[in-house]
Amino acid sequence: MWTSVLGQTGASIPPVTPGILLVFAIVAVALVLFVAEPLPIDIVAVGVLVALVVLEPWTRVDPTTGVSGFSSPATITVLAMFVLSEGIRRSGLINIVGAAVAERFGDSHLKQLLAVLGISGGTAGLINNTPVVAIMIPMVNTISKKTGISPSKLLMPVSFVAMLGGTLTLIGTSTNILASDVSARLIGHPFSMFEFTQLGVLVLVTGTVYIATIGRYLLPERITVDEELIEEFEMAEYLTEVVVREDSPLVGRTVNQVLQDTDLDVDVVQLVRGDQVFSEPLARKEVRPDDVFVIRTDRSSLLELLDAEGLDLAPDAEVTEETLDVEDAAMEPEDDQSLVEVVLSPEASIVGETLETTNFRNRYDATVLAIRRGGQVIHARMDERRLRGGDTLLIQASDDTIRRFGNDRNFVLARELTRPDFRRSRIPVAVGIVLGVVALAALEVMPILISALAGMVAMVATGCVKPTEVYESVDWSVVFLLAGLIPLGVAMERTGGAEWLASVVVVGTAGLAPIVVLGVFYLFTSLITNVVSNNASVVLMIPVAVDTAEAIGAEPFSFVLAVTFAASTALMTPIGYQTNLMVYGPGGYRFGDFIRVGAPLQAILTVVTTLGIVHWWGV
């Protein structure tokens, strides 16, 4: 009742209770941890859950409510959708379409751009946009190699449009599914499958037109396509060849012993012994006189190494990409060595670890030569650097090892378009299952939760996804993030924190038309989602938006939609959304590139989305 009076009379803001203060303090700490990331965000979310339950007398979140997020329809639906997306990914459908695009539209930058945007945006409406972008990265690099167009001109648009494509349907993103759950709890209005598709089409078309016109001129060209990987990663000063002298103290020791005993920043990349060339695994190779090593090190370490370890520079110490790309007739084809870029997925298990703590060299039989983090290339002391999602690793490995990287969801191969293990015969089945899930939910034959679980079972039963791949296909960090944050939204409601914030908004926007307030909510949500999780933005902002709408006599569902759509537009930072992180390294982007390209689009979408909501749902 107080809300309607407040909206009409301009009553003062209600007092702040200890419960509200405590919940706000938990929110503030969580937001700081989300941005700083001293811990993974899913662990932070579980920590929020624990804090809310421990402080139940003030937060009003009992243990049953605290763990309710794990059984929430939103959480279970998102989990099932990951398996459905995996079925499409394993079929190779998107790769086949991508290969056709590379072949057909290789003569025009604009045609390439529109083609990749169409694939990325259209596909993201039906399957999770993270695997879509993972598939698009090598496709874009293949197109770039063929046509000479910098991948920097294509990768950011792919990420942006994949985000916008997620607004086409209920299952487009985990954000939509979570928002539907919160909307059902607060105003009794969950989203239907195509509830906001018309608005999603408007948003997607607006974003595509912007990128194809204004945006493509703002996109930088950070990576030159005609460069070899050695040049692209600025390796000329860090790779050289050395010869082992007969009096060297290294003779008779294994490569692994040599590397363990030295404090210098050095890696052995390759061993040449007469006509034989050896690459990973090198750990057990015994050093002999006249062995030639290709090593990665800096100049000062090289001088110290030559002096202390009985080594000489090789007569021709220049290392080229051909030096490292080894095709030896005496070797099995799968043992041929080559350079390749590997992108670390944001949800990879080794994020936060170092190359040393993960024992990367022995674990993967691959040598990391450099790390590209956005526009920065890291050469020195790489073993001590904590790995981040989106890091691009320049590695040398055998073809067999590279294939293993391609099959590992922790990594995205940046230079390979096809893989031999696609289940192409399952394409019609996988597509049919996804369409069946959508149809059953759209026709209200069964809830999306049940149809998605049925689709998951069907994917396994038909061989589209193997039983052992089910758990690997789920991004468990998202599942735990959702489960941990859902009780936070409940605490905001039960303590009155959402109502208090709504009163502040109402007082602060007194005299403004409801459509302006709606636009303010969209803009504010879109700004905070650039630095915190999009799911966190939805959980925090929808309760406030609903209370504000009720306070000013506006349509609550319109405000729910504004927050939901804004949470899917993290366009101004590489850290705002997983897909931005995934293209950050491969595109060689700088942090400011996202602001330059994304900020104008963010402003345009604020106006377009607000007007679209008012047109179709009123305010």
UniProtKB/TrEMBL annotation:
Record's bilayer topology term? Multi-pass membrane protein
UniProt cross-references to InterPro entries, sorted A to Z: Cit_transptr-like_dom, DASS-Related_Transporters, RCK_C, RCK_C_sf
Q: For this UniProt entry, which segments traverse the membrane? A: 16-36, 43-59, 65-84, 154-179, 199-219, 429-454, 504-524, 557-577, 597-617
Which UniProt keywords are given for this protein, alphabetically ordered? Membrane, Repeat, Transmembrane, Transmembrane helix, Transport
One GO cellular component term, please give it: membrane
This protein's superkingdom?
A: Archaea
Task: List each copy of the RCK C-terminal domain by range.
Answer: 227-311, 324-411
Intracellular or extracellular location(s): Membrane
Chief subcellular location? membrane
Q: Which PANTHER family has this protein been placed in? A: BASIC AMINO ACID ANTIPORTER YFCC-RELATED
Supply the name of the protein. Answer: SLC13 family permease
Source organism per UniProt = Halopenitus salinus
